[in-house]
Amino acid sequence: MKYKLVLFDMDGTLLDGRTINIFAEKKGFQNELINVFKSDKKFYEKTIEIAKLLKGFKKTELIKIFREIPLQKDVEKVIIELKKRKIKTAIITDSYQFVADDLRKRLGIDYIYANNLISKNVYLQERSNSIIINLLGITLIMKYIQSVKAVY
Q: What is the domain extent for residue 122?
């Protein structure tokens, strides 16, 4: 069987760490994040609550922190090998579009699908303008890639 597409998660798979945990550590909202994680809220409600914790931060300062998160060992070699074999690559993550896009550009990934935070000027707002990336979302994204991008 010849493969045409490899999907990667971002946090803990391509990156050696979780983006939101690193943001919380560096920006001082770890306790609030832990409270959201421990809450009885549904997954999508937690995603919205986490987005609220990022309100008021500049994307540029978060990107700087994001770039400090190390890649997993050999990630760059794997992506290069996939490209040599003409295999498309995609990141599907429950993290945020602006950081996933940064990693896409750094690694040469073909597609990304992530939650999109609303920003005003350069500051993040508390709302999320996104589909919530979950198992259903991943299935729909795979069908989309397959139909629109002609990946079989």
A: 5-148
User: Can you list the positions of beta strands (E) in the chain?
Assistant: 5-8, 88-96, 111-115, 117-120, 123-128
What is the tens place of the pLDDT at every residue in 7-54? Answer: 899 999 999 999 999 999 999 999 999 999 999 988 778 888 888 898
Sign of CA pseudo-dihedral 61, 116, 52, 139: negative
How many Cα atoms within 13 Å fall on the side-chain side of residue 3? 11
Tally of domains in the chain: 1
What are the beta bridge partners of residue 120? 123
Q: Check whether 151 has a pLDDT greater than 50.
A: no
Q: What is the CATH number of the domain that holds 38?
A: 3.40.50.1000
**How far from the centroid of its chain's Cα atoms is residue 138's Cα?**
13
Give buried/exposed letters for 39-76 (b at 16+ CB in 10 A, else e).
eeeeebebbbbbbebbeebebeebeebbeebeeeeebe
Neighbouring C-beta atoms of residue 34, cutoff 10 Å? 12
Residue (of 111, 129, 126) closest to 10 by Cα position? 111
Kindly report the backbone phi and psi dihedral angles of residue 128, in degrees, each rounded to the nearest multiple of 5, phi listed first: -115, 125
